C-alpha cells in the first residue's frame, strides 16, 4: 500500500530535485510554498504573514527564473510516485485564466471569442492520476498567449499551428516519464474531444511508442466501410452496465443503463493533406457507451472513445470507459486552482510573473487533491502522514472539546473529515465524501487554530 508523504517533508520532497541552482532561491521557494499551503485561499500578502516575507515573495517572482524550473522538482517526485503504480492516467486538458478585470497587468493576450474583450492566458496541464488513489502530481504544464482574435468559425491558421502542438508536447513529456518508469508502469494519455485529430495519434505512434492513448471521439469520420459512428452502432453488443447520473439543475439523479460496443478501425490521414497517401494508416479501437432507453425528458448518454489499447471483450471496454470517467479529476484540479488557490486574483503585474506563481499554485492545488484521494483510498492510515502533531491535536481538541483517546492520533479518514467540518461540511450520512471546497476552507481555518494551540500550550507562555 503506497504511503502518503510525511507532512514535515512533503515540501522538501517536491523541491528536492529542482533545477534552481541558487540555495537562496531554493530556500525562498520552499518558504513560499509552505506559506501558501497553510492558507490556500489567502493572497500572497496574507499567506506570507509579514511585509518582509511578502516583499521577498514578490521579489522572487520578479526574478528572471524559468517558470518550468519551479515545477521541475515536483515533476521528478511525480514520476517517482508513478513508478509505484501499474497503471497511470496522464490526463491533459486546457483551461483559460481570466484577468480581464485587472487591466494594469502587462503582456496578456486574448481569451474567448472574437466578440469578447477578455484578457488572460491559457494553461495546458497534464495531471498524473492513479485510477485507485487519485492524483499523483502535475507532469507537464504549458502556459501560452493568444495574441490574435480567433475567427468566427475557428482559429486562424497561425493559432491552430501554434496551439495544437501543446497536445504533442504533453505526449513527449509522457514518453520521457515512461522511459524513466520502465515497463512496470503503463502510461495512458487521456484527452477530450479537442485531441481527436490524426496528427495526435500519428505522433504518438512515432515519437511516444511507450504511451497508450484514450481520446473521446469528436468527428464522424468516413471509413472504408462507412461512417464511424454508424459502424460502431452496428456492432454486436458486448454487454451493459449501469451508472449513476448525478443530479443537475432541474433534473433529479437517475440510473442509466449503457450498451457497450467496440470495433477495430483504421484511421487514415486527412485527404486534404499534402502527400496524405504517404502518412501511415493507424489501427485503433473504437468504443461506444450508449443509453438506448433514456427518459424522454433527458438527453441520452453517448460516449465514443478511440484508443490504442486492445479491446477484446466487455471487461476491457468497461475498463477503458472507467478510465475516461476519471478525466473529470483534472476539472476538479482546475476548480481548486481557480477557486481554492484563487489564482485569478493574484496581484502580479506581468505574464512572466504570473507564470511563476502559477507553478507553485499548481503544486498546492495538487496537494489538496492528493489529500482528498488518500483520505478516500486509505482512510485507515495514521493522520500523522499528512498533519503535524500540534495540528491534529489542535484539530481534535477544537471540534471534540476533549483530548484524543489515549493520546493516539485519529485515522487519516477521520482527520480529513474533521478538517472538512471546519470548512462547513455537515458530515450527514447522505452527504457522501467531502469535496475540495470544504477541505481548502478547513485547511485555512486549521492553520489559525493550530498556531493558537502552539502559543497557548507553550510552557513559556502558560503557567
Compact description:
The chain is of the alpha+beta class and 463 residues long.
Descriptive tags:
disordered N terminus, Transferase Inhibitor Protein From Tn5, Chain A, domain2, 463 residues, alpha+beta, Transposase Inhibitor Protein From Tn5, Chain A, domain 1
Could you characterize what this model shows?
The protein has helices at residues 10-15, 23-38, 44-48, 51-62, 67-82, 157-163, 165-181, 198-207, 228-233, 314-325, 328-340, 351-377, 389-400, 412-422, 436-457, and strands at 87-98, 109-110, 119-130, 134-144, 186-191, 211-216, 222-223, 226-227, 239-245, 254-267, 282-290, 302-307. It is an alpha+beta fold and 463 residues long. It folds into two domains: 68-347, Transposase Inhibitor Protein From Tn5, Chain A, domain 1, CATH 3.90.350.10; 379-457, Transferase Inhibitor Protein From Tn5, Chain A, domain2 (Orthogonal Bundle). Strand 5, helix 8 (198-207) and strand 6 form a beta-alpha-beta unit. Mean pLDDT is 87; it is low at 1-8 and 149-160.
* CATH topology type of the largest domain: Transposase Inhibitor Protein From Tn5, Chain A, domain 1
**Which CATH architecture of the largest domain is right?**
Alpha-Beta Complex
- Tell me the name of the CATH homologous superfamily of the largest domain: Transposase Inhibitor Protein From Tn5, Chain A, domain 1
State the assembly state of the protein chains.
Answer: single chain
Going by helix content, strand content and strand pairing, the class is alpha+beta
Number of spatially distinct domains: 2
Amino acid at each position: 500500500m503506497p504511503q502518503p508523504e510525511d507532512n514535515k517533508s512533503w515540501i522538501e520532497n517536491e523541491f528536492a530535485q529542482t533545477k534552481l541552482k541558487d540555495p537562496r532561491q531554493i530556500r525562498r521557494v520552499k518558504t513560499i510554498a509552505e506559506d501558501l499551503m497553510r492558507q490556500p485561499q489567502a493572497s500572497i500578502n496574507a499567506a506570507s504573514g509579514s511585509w518582509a516575507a511578502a516583499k521577498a515573495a514578490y521579489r522572487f517572482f520578479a526574478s528572471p527564473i524559468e517558470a518550468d524550473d519551479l515545477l521541475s522538482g515536483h515533476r521528478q517526485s511525480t514520476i517517482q510516485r508513478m513508478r509505484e503504480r501499474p497503471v497511470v492516467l496522464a490526463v491533459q486538458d486546457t483551461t483559460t485564466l481570466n484577468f480581464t478585470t485587472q487591466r494594469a497587468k502587462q503582456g496578456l493576450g486574448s481569451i474567448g471569442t472574437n466578440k469578447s474583450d477578455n484578457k488572460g492566458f491559457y494553461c495546458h496541464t497534464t495531471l498524473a492520476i492513479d485510477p485507485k488513489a487519485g492524483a499523483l502530481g502535475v507532469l507537464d504544464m504549458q502556459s501560452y498567449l493568444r495574441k490574435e482574435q480567433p475567427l468566427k468559425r475557428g482559429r486562424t491558421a497561425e493559432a491552430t499551428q501554434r496551439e495544437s502542438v501543446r497536445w504533442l508536447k504533453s505526449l513527449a513529456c509522457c514518453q520521457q516519464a515512461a522511459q524513466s518508469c520502465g515497463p512496470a508502469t503503463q502510461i495512458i494519455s487521456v484527452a477530450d474531444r479537442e485531441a481527436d485529430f490524426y496528427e495526435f495519434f500519428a505522433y504518438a505512434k512515432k515519437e511516444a511508442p511507450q504511451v497508450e492513448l484514450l481520446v473521446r471521439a469528436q468527428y464522424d469520420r468516413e471509413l472504408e466501410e462507412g461512417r464511424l459512428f454508424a459502424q460502431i452502432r452496428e456492432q454486436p453488443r458486448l454487454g451493459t452496465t449501469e451508472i449513476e447520473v448525478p443530479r443537475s439543475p432541474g433534473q433529479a439523479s437517475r440510473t442509466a443503463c449503457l450498451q457497450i460496443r467496440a470495433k477495430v478501425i483504421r484511421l487514415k490521414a486527412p485527404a486534404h493533406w499534402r502527400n496524405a497517401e504517404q502518412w501511415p494508416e493507424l489501427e485503433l479501437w473504437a468504443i461506444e457507451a450508449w443509453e438506448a432507453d433514456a427518459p424522454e425528458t433527458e438527453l441520452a448518454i453517448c460516449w465514443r472513445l478511440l484508443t490504442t489499447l486492445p479491446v477484446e471483450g466487455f471487461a476491457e471496454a468497461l475498463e477503458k470507459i472507467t478510465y475516461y470517467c476519471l478525466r473529470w479529476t483534472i476539472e476538479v484540479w482546475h476548480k481548486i486552482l481557480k477557486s481554492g488557490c484563487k489564482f485569478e486574483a493574484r496581484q502580479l503585474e506581468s505574464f512572466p510573473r504570473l507564470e511563476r506563481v502559477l507553478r507553485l499554485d499548481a503544486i498546492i492545488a495538487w496537494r489538496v487533491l492528493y489529500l482528498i484521494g488518500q483520505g478516500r483510498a486509505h482512510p485507515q492510515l495514521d493522520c500523522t502522514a499528512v498533519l503535524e502533531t500540534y495540528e491534529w491535536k489542535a484539530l481534535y481538541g477544537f471540534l471534540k472539546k476533549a483530548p484524543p483517546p489515549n493520546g493516539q492520533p485519529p485515522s487519516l479518514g477521520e482527520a480529513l473529515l474533521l478538517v472538512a467540518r471546519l470548512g462547513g461540511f455537515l458530515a450527514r450520512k447522505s452527504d457522501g465524501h467531502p469535496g475540495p471546497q470544504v477541505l481548502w476552507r478547513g485547511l485555512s481555518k486549521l492553520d489559525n487554530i493550530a498556531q493558537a494551540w502552539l502559543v497557548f500550550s507553550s510552557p513559556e507562555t502558560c503557567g
